[in-house]
Amino acid sequence: MHQEILLNMDNPLQLEKLYRNDKLAFKVAFNTLYPQLKGDPLAEGWYQRLNYSPEDLLWGTRDERVLVVGASLLAALLAKLPDLFSLDKEFFYTRNIGFIVFPLLIAYFAWKNKISQKTGAWLAGFILIAIGFINSLPQGRPGDTLILACIHLPLLLWFFLGFTFGGGKLSGGINRLDFLRYNGELVVMTALLLLAGMLMTGITIGLFELIGWHIQNFYFNYVVVCGLAAVPIVGTFLTQTNPQLVGKVSPVIAKIFSPLVLVMLVIYLIAIIYSGKDPYNDREFLLIFNALLVGVLAIIFFSVAETSKATKSQLEVWVLFLLSCVTILVNGIALSAILFRISEWGITPNRAAVLGANVLILIHLLFVTAQFFKVLTKKADLAEVGKAIAFYLPVYGLWAMIVTFLFPFLFGFN
């Protein structure tokens, strides 16, 4: 590597190729050679590039810090409303869990992206209507439509979070892909914050135990609950002000987990044949099968979002293409099982919701897989896959809105 660098010091393009082929070896070799190259403008540029150290942790502007602290305190207050006003916890949390964090994150990005007052008022109005609607549904025996509404409402709020993240505009595939990337980074940051919180919880409770104070109930009821409500907001703030914190970790996670999930999925499908289990007659198994489908779909989207901004190797594209193909097979099995159950036992809210979701996912997967195939045959680049993913996202938001607001009326609140 030393000799190759010296031979190509007058060829910037070749130096760049050497660097991309083995970044670590290039850095070590270049820093070793730097004393004899000192003074060369190109060498100075490479030295600064290779040895640049990011600034200390950034904490945003004063206004942003005030907003985040205020939003975190408000999220903690909302999480404790059942205790403060003696509300039924099951009733409150099942219907309102999404309203503890999502509206505050929506407000954060609305402020950060300076969306118009008209758009902000429209979003606030929708959230208030959604709160009133979900809490006005019948309180008797929980029906399927109520459960479906409680499940799909957070998904709808997530869609509006993406809308606000993109500056209050429905168009813009790049912004949608950035939104998926933000979600991946937020998951990583949240996991780190939760691990740190668990460590602090263990130490704190242990220390107080040593002096005979049993603070477990108080700590979990107030500190832990309030902390869990604030974590997504703090995590969002950290990822937005310090993208370098997890910017390099997320692509690595995507590269590691994509092939692992592909292998796991293939082995799992083979194991199903020998296990005697099938989603056609086992309702619980079908639910788990669909959860698996959604999880794998999320990994595909996360992988593309995290690595589309960088050059991907042919092997990585092949892994994602094969993963998409296997996921289409999983989707086909789940879809056929749902159709079988509908033909045998009729339509229900649950079956209608799962059928619609599976059809939408299948269409999306076919579209994305076709783009992967074009990338492999050199007819398109990876950016087209990202566009295929981003373009379709509003469809999921529309479906979540239908299930949340129309299903209760279509199925008589059953």
Automatic annotation (TrEMBL):
Record-annotated membrane-spanning stretches: 91-110, 122-140, 146-165, 186-213, 219-240, 252-274, 286-305, 317-340, 352-377, 389-411
**What does the UniProt keyword field contain?**
Membrane, Transmembrane, Transmembrane helix
Specify the protein name.
Uncharacterized protein DUF4153
Task: Print the organism lineage.
Answer: Bacteria, Pseudomonadati, Bacteroidota, Cytophagia, Cytophagales
